[in-house]
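quick one before i forget lol
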Amino acid sequence: MTIDHIGVILYPEFIFLRIIGRLAFPIFGYLIAIGLRSTKKPKKYFITLLIFGLISQIPYYLAFNIQPFERLNIFFSLLLGALTIYFFKKKNYIAIIPLVLSLLPIFEGSFYGVLTILFMDILLDNKKTGILALLALNSLFLFESNIQAKIQIFSLAALAIILLHVTNRLKFEIIIPNHSFFYIIRKYFFYFYYPLHLVLLFLISNSI
């Protein structure tokens, strides 16, 4: 993610930075699917995503030099994806609402982001179905004429990492007591890292 943002903000001429960055969102989507399965308080999970989405919006529009609500940062897309999974599993038609909202261009990643998260959840239950769904979704970018859109196909490379984790080949257990300092750091590291790295990139871009 950081490499991708460095490519967008500081070195837009280096397309390889954007290609490397394609690995980020599928992994985030996978972590959202796991996080929703792990939490005992899904509503608190949704609220956390919303709060950090609001916190991150100012650094986001400053770093990317856009209007305040021209586009909403990735936390809002992750929230829509989490809500889609939550209601989808309950077989509740409300699941259609966040999916439809994701069609609005103001959400980073649009419907692709929400479907990626949903398909990651499906992958956790059925690897073949999940992989086929993700292959079909990402193959749509091959028909794009814009090179920035076409490179999205490289996000499929993240499946190698994800499948290693799903099959327990990347898992190792570290026991950290709940509510300890290190537990809180591990739990909220990314939430804080996202807006902070955008602030740093904004400062760097304005000093060059």
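fyi The longest helix spans residues 181-207.
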